[in-house]
Amino acid sequence: LQIRSDKDKEIHIRYSITGVGADQPPMEVFNIDPVSGRMYVTRPMDREERASYHLRAHAVDMNGNKVENPIDLYIYVIDMNDNRPEFINQVYNGSVDEGSKPGTYVMTVTANDADDGTTANGMVRYRIVTQTPQSPSQNMFTINSETGDIVTVAAGLDREKVQQYIVIVQATDMEGNLNYGLSNTATAIITVTDVNDNPPEFTTSTVRAAGWCNAEQPQKGVRTSVVITRDLTGSLMGQAGSRNWGGMGLPTTTGTHSHFSFPQPKGPREKIQHFAAAVDYEMNRAFMLTVMVSNQAPLASGIQMSFQSTAGVTISVTDVNEAPYFPTNHKLIRLEEGVPTGTVLTMFSAVDPDRFMQQAVRYSKLSDPANWLNINATNGQITTAAVLDRESDYIKNNVYEATFLAADNGIPPASGTGTLQIYLIDINDNAPELLPKEAQICEKPNLNVINITAADADIDPNVGPFVFELPSVPSAVRKNWTITRLNGDYAQLSLRIMYLEAGVYDVPIIVTDSGNPPLYNTSVIKVKVCPCDENGDCTTIGAVAAAGLGTGAIIAILICIIILLTMVLLFVVWMKRREKERHTKQLLIDPEDDVRDNILKYDEEGGGEEDQDYDLSQLQQPETMDHVLNKTPGVRRVDERPIGAEPQYPIRPVIPHPGDIGDFINEGLRAADNDPTAPPYDSLLVFDYEGSGSTAGSVSSLNSSSSGDQDYDYLNDWGPRFKKLADMYGGGEED
């Protein structure tokens, strides 16, 4: 493409372009020669990316002045067949009923081509490449070349023969021209759905089977299903799990069908299972059934066959050992509490359903929380093993519950349980108890009273109304106190006299219930009598007096407290005075020479070599130890610590007074001089024997090295504590 101005012969003109593809994204797709006006494409163009471009061409002189008005340039990209058709899905799923007529719609496949759909480049056509399996014909389906609709083209679809077809579909552009067009493929899976065109059919007309009577249950309404036979087989040609396949079995013999049920088979030609429920050998030893089977769905139209099939079934019941059961479970009996031990309560017997087996039933206790009952092992007679008490913690709502076991001796043995409930009727066996046990009242009457009541463990009518009365003995009770009845359960206790000394009084009260015969109990209530204020409340002094202390006792206690406090005060004053005297006493030694805190006892070294006469033969290995082992009593080794009572050394006070240091040193010195066990008790200590033939010399050959010319003047620099030592050794020349 070239643009040119008519004025290019008169002046020099420069050409340029603007717009999308030039100076706007995508940038520099087009370029123009500014002198000649020729336009060029700088890179390959894709119609599927952008189909057209709108540019504007400009012409200016050398000074940039506009020479011509801008012109619009429209550039269209011509399509080429560079894109294959693409299916929306690689796998398509469809279905069609078996026996469908030709022309029946199955499914639609769709492919899209990115090329221009108005040209042959984007026009897609469909065709079927292959069909698997090719039965009963290799062309069972066809496809509309333009729309992609797949329909049946031949008859003979049979699910029992072919359940699924796999069809490969090809899509080609260029209107389906295989020489020039581009192609792609997809898979179509066509499932043949089942219709009820095959009725069920028994493979055998008669069947014999055996069942066990352990399906029976002693409890009415309870049934257990068990497999009786699997020999009654049927041919079900429909699709498994569908209404066309499922067979319904129904017994036709009147009066026996309630014992049996016939569930659906779980697979093609599977044996039909018959279940029995609540059959009893003692009632029926055999059953004769006629079983009919049919599909749940009706046969498809046009099928000229019977929709059902029948077969005869004979079922024999086999006897097995069944558990004994209690006909009345739970069994409830009523009796009064307190019956004596050994009383017969009831017969709690079980029934063994095995009438044709000679078996014995034995009874035992399974649960008896209070251990109140016994059961006869052979006949189930229940007797009491203890007195039954309705007020026991084992009673819930007046009922005591125990569980018993009945077991037969069959092979294998079987057992059943039964529950016995005993409703205990209350008798008047508990006397009432007075409440409260303690109370408080003023020493003068008419100020307050004590409300009293009673508690009884029995129940109505063996409880209230209660009768409250004071005993005649001792006579002081009725003289000092009186009882006023409020109602059937409450009364008031108050003072009869005008004044009663403060203290604690035990007031006996007789409480009688309304049982037949009535029971009474004499209870004691502790009453604190105390002085009261104007509001009727006990005062503080009155509370103490009511606790049982008289005025004399209170005064004696106060005097003892005062004496004790005085003694403590005198002891404190004496301790302070003694401490003051110890601080004012003069020191026995100069404070600068007080070295008591520097005297540390480490240990006693013992005598030196100059003090002792050593027998070096003791350091040699003895030939025997007889002189040690055969030592006579009372003779000890010279290196042993003597055994005897040790003297008591004085204990140094924690904070000693300076004036006591002399006494402390003197007492310790006397104790050490009189201590036979204090080291050095002997300087000869045998640590070990060197042995004979030692090349070592005697330790006596070691001499102490000392010189009298040593200078001790440096002791003067060590402070006042070493002043005495410096005077003794430092001034040797002057002395």
Automatic annotation (TrEMBL):
Q: Which InterPro entries match?
A: Cadherin, Cadherin-like_dom, Cadherin-like_sf, Cadherin_CS, Cadherin_Y-type_LIR, Catenin-bd_sf
Question: In the UniProt record, does the keyword Secreted occur?
Answer: no
SUPFAM superfamilies attached to this UniProt entry: Cadherin-like (SSF49313)
What is the name of the gene encoding this protein?
Cdh4
What this protein is reported to do is described as:
Cadherins are calcium-dependent cell adhesion proteins.
Q: Which UniProt key words apply to this protein?
A: Calcium, Cell adhesion, Cell membrane, Cleavage on pair of basic residues, Glycoprotein, Membrane, Metal-binding, Repeat, Signal, Transmembrane, Transmembrane helix
Q: What is its main location?
A: membrane
An example molecular function term from Gene Ontology annotations: calcium ion binding
Pfam families given for it?
CADH_Y-type_LIR, Cadherin
Lineage of source species = Eukaryota, Metazoa, Chordata, Craniata, Vertebrata
- Per its record, how is this protein called by name? Cadherin-4
Any one of the GO CC terms:
catenin complex
GO biological process, alphabetically ordered: adherens junction organization; calcium-dependent cell-cell adhesion via plasma membrane cell adhesion molecules; cell migration; cell morphogenesis; cell-cell adhesion mediated by cadherin; cell-cell junction assembly; homophilic cell adhesion via plasma membrane adhesion molecules
